[in-house]
Amino acid sequence: MRIYSIEILGKVGEEVELAGWVDSRRDHGKLIFIDLRDKEGLAQLVFRGEDENLRKKADELRPEWVIQIKGKVVERPEEMKNPNLETGNLEVGVSELEVLAKAETPPFPLDTDGYEINEELRLKYRYLDLRRQRLKRNLVIRHQAAQFVRKFLSDWGFTEIETPYITKGTPEGAREFVMPARLHPGKFYVLPQSPQQFKQMLMVAGLERYFQLARVFRDEDPRADRAYGEATQIDIEVSFMSQEEILSLIEEMFIELVGKLFPEKRITQVPFPRISYDEAMAKYKADKPDLRENKEDPNELAFCFIVGWPMFEWNEEEKRWDPHHHIFTAPRASDIPLLDSDPAKVRSWQHDLVLNGYEIAGGSIRITDPEVQAKVFELVGIPKEEGRSRFEHMLEAFSYGVPPHGGIAIGFDRMLIPLLNEPNLREVMAFPKTGDGRDLMTGAPSEIEEKQLKELGIEIKKKK
Amino acid sequence: MRIYSIEILGKVGEEVELAGWVDSRRDHGKLIFIDLRDKEGLAQLVFRGEDENLRKKADELRPEWVIQIKGKVVERPEEMKNPNLETGNLEVGVSELEVLAKAETPPFPLDTDGYEINEELRLKYRYLDLRRQRLKRNLVIRHQAAQFVRKFLSDWGFTEIETPYITKGTPEGAREFVMPARLHPGKFYVLPQSPQQFKQMLMVAGLERYFQLARVFRDEDPRADRAYGEATQIDIEVSFMSQEEILSLIEEMFIELVGKLFPEKRITQVPFPRISYDEAMAKYKADKPDLRENKEDPNELAFCFIVGWPMFEWNEEEKRWDPHHHIFTAPRASDIPLLDSDPAKVRSWQHDLVLNGYEIAGGSIRITDPEVQAKVFELVGIPKEEGRSRFEHMLEAFSYGVPPHGGIAIGFDRMLIPLLNEPNLREVMAFPKTGDGRDLMTGAPSEIEEKQLKELGIEIKKKK
Fold it and tell me: What domains lie within chain B, and their CATH numbers?
């Protein structure tokens, strides 16, 4: 039974079976040393040259070949011990060697951190790029962070509920991906920008505490610092909690997460400051203030919540008010009269979480009063009839006993950037696309067959 | 601070705050009793009528109204105790009542199991349908099962890795959902039928143990017993494990899952029988045999693995061999010579998991030898050139040191059907579509704006 490299610890004198990749080789006269790499680390193999056949086979080994060996775990001679390696006191004297796969020379080095390599090349050969220690570690910690969040929220009585990805459009501003509905010619499905309506429906259903590590989709214009198309968000919605109760919960989650998975990090200020939008603008000239005391310190994390946001911003072009967050965000109760008299002055129950100057989460307490909702539709220029018909199912749902509710969505990829000290989103995802939406590894997007287009009832528009 | 109904246990004599839905009311002369329902259960509220205003407000309460109350927890009189209710020994004498939202009368009863109600009506009002105990419980247990699987696999050293949903087509037979690529006119993205290529790439990358609770997408023709469009699968891929090691792992996972979350269930036979395809056909005339000893017992679970599948089936229409599983499934090493001489006799490393006569999982050990892969392309009628170009990235990846690997995908929704004793997939999902792909709650699919079509460079084909 094959064991991991790390498991040779405590097996001195025993016969073991290992498998993995040739990380490097060193020839010392008649001795050949191979560093065998597997998921858990490195183990040094030694071929002593007593068995001529084995020695010949070992001589052929090249970096990145996949091998399986049997051998005996022994202490290294004192002067050969390597304190920088977990298994550095031991080596495995190989008695059997099987080559499972040979390997071409990779197009770039795998033992560096990789930032120096052309990124398009890295993305084309992502399956090799991911062999580097840094990226493998990023994926593993990402997994641990997801597991932590799931456990934390489950312990708080939250239920993770999967909402559909094949759905109907919502008007949240960003461009949407659409799919022709083969069974309903002329109609389309949409990939969700957020599970907004579904999570609010779950509150109407009385689930009370929902979360989901949800994929969200936006067809954005090319931006070099982005990964195109999809992102993961920790999506949370809860009934009967005040804004402050939601913020406290999120604060506790981040403090525990950092303590558990990033113990080298220091949080500048606990509790996280709650700063009103007006104060942030007056004091820091920014609605995403960077509150780090020492911006050179890669291990400092300065969180703050921004609250007291204006409900609307004036859209001069369209001569109407745009919602600052989204159309389901509730105004503060005391400001409701201002909806008629002075919309600019209305403050909402929006909340953002800022980390080191980046907005990593946003949310709000939602509107549950149909009259307030109708008023907001009116102010943002959705005609009464249209608002009624586009959101009929939500307004109707709210007529059957809607609890007060609100939520927050945390950009999971985005929050990992400062936690993993990475420069951009693509370093914290397994298979990112380029900023302009190409998957360089698989070749997406690509042409599809005429037959498929025909079935879907669409045509590619000819260029005039 | 509001507490859950269940939390009144052990709070006798204390003032508490509760919130939730009016489940039912009973008037006993001057006393009004309300069963308050929240996420965790029911608590009996009593309005004693001493406060005239409060009594008047209580008198207005109707089922499904959302209320918040303050009151004192007291023991019920002995003859009023209800042993069928967790909080049945207690009641809350209300001193303050706030109505948070009124409610229309629901279009169907919420206190039944719901099977008797027209399903289209249930799906249209899914936010009410989900208020019923049975469905709420299904969602919570589904969450617990997902959490269990994640923890089990993590403890086994697996990493959950998110693979893209906006991707390129794979040739696995089912129809795919396609999205016009706005930034690349004439090209399309595809929603994945499975993360097949990505998970194999992760094996090349040396992650060794991958899993993902992945959404998978198929544009299937209408079928009454299905939920259209998307499903969740527990997707597992692993390097350096034999087929039997994979099966043992899955077996252990299901035994622990059942023991922990479904203790009322009994597994017919442990270890799960491993049955060859030939034996299954000879003995049970089925490749999905139902091995229950008593088919009337709703708590019996009969698992078995089917192995030794034929690699191909002859497609008389197209005059070629079709892969029985998929084109990446490995033939048994001893059968490789038969690829040339007698493809019908080749056995593969496919494995299925069958539960009570339903196939709930399938997988295989994969091909890692480029020559064998080329031969399979040839047999299934993919021309050499085309095979090369369509799968170039995979074949190329395999040239850089590919470990032996294999995997299995478990239909998560599907496995929950027998575990939750439900008749179909729609009862174990939060927001299923109808068999013909309509979301009756939100109204998807729907028309989109001409402007959007124009941006995407497509046109709806006019009917001739």
Answer: 5-101 (2.40.50.140), 127-427 (3.30.930.10)
